[in-house]
Amino acid sequence: MSTRGATKEAFLSTGINLFIEHGFDQVTINQICKEINVTKTAFYYYFKSKDELISEFFSVDNLITQDDLLEILSVSDYADQAMKVMGTYVKHIVRSGVELTKEFYRVHLRNEIIPLTKGKSTLLGSIIPILIQRAKDAGQVKNPASAEDLHDTMCCIANGVCLHWAIEGGNFDALEESRRRFENLLIVK
Question: CATH number, domain at 49?
C-alpha cells in the first residue's frame, strides 16, 4: 500500500459506496484504504475520521451539479432561484438515500453540529441572501423579515424536511415538501 494517487474525491466516493453497501458502523478506515490501495496515513491527510468524511460528502458546496446550476440560472425570478438553490441541498439528501441521510444526521447530533446553516463561508450561503433581497426588492417575496433571517429559516426548514423524510423512510417527496414550505415562508403567492 502507498499514499500516492489517493485523492480526497477517491476517499469520498469509496467511503460513501462502502457505507451504502455495508452500513456506516460496519465500515472501517482500514477497509476504505484497502479498497483504494493506500495507507491510513493518506486517509488522515484528508480526513480526521469517518464522521468528517460523511460531513464532507454532504457539505453544501460539494453538492451542486452543473445540471443544478443550469436549472437555477434558467429562471429569472429571484425568489424561485433562491428556492432552487436551497432545493439542491434537499435533492442531494434524497439522492444519497434514507440510510446514509440517517447516518449523516446521527454524526451531526453526536458532534453537536448543525448540518445546514446560513454560513457566509459557503458559496451557496453567500448567494441565497442576495437572491432573497433581490426578490424582496422586486416584490416577489412578501415576508418583511430580513433576507438573512429568511435564509436562516430556509436552512432550518430544509434540515427539518430532510430529517423528517429520513425518519419516515423516504415516504414523501422531500423536494416538493421543502418547496411548499419555502413558498409559505417567503409568501411568494
Answer: 1.10.10.60
**Phi/psi of residue 38, nearest 5 degrees:** -135, 170
**Cβ contact 111:52 at 8 Å:** no
Asked if residue 117 and residue 78 are part of one domain, the reply reads yes
Residue (of 174, 170, 154) closest to 85 by Cα position: 154
Q: Which three cell numbers stand for residue 93?
A: 439528501
* Domain range enclosing 48: 8-57
Closest CA to 106 of 182, 55, 34, 31: 55
Cell for 141? 417575496
Asked whether residue 43 falls in the same domain as residue 132, the answer is no
**Which residues, other chains included, contact 20 with Cβ-Cβ below 8 Å and sequence gap of 6+?**
97, 99, 100
H/E stretch holding 47 reads none
pTM score, whole prediction: 0.81
pLDDT digits (tens, 9 = 90+) for 105-153: 988 888 776 666 655 446 667 889 999 999 999 999 999 999 999 999 9
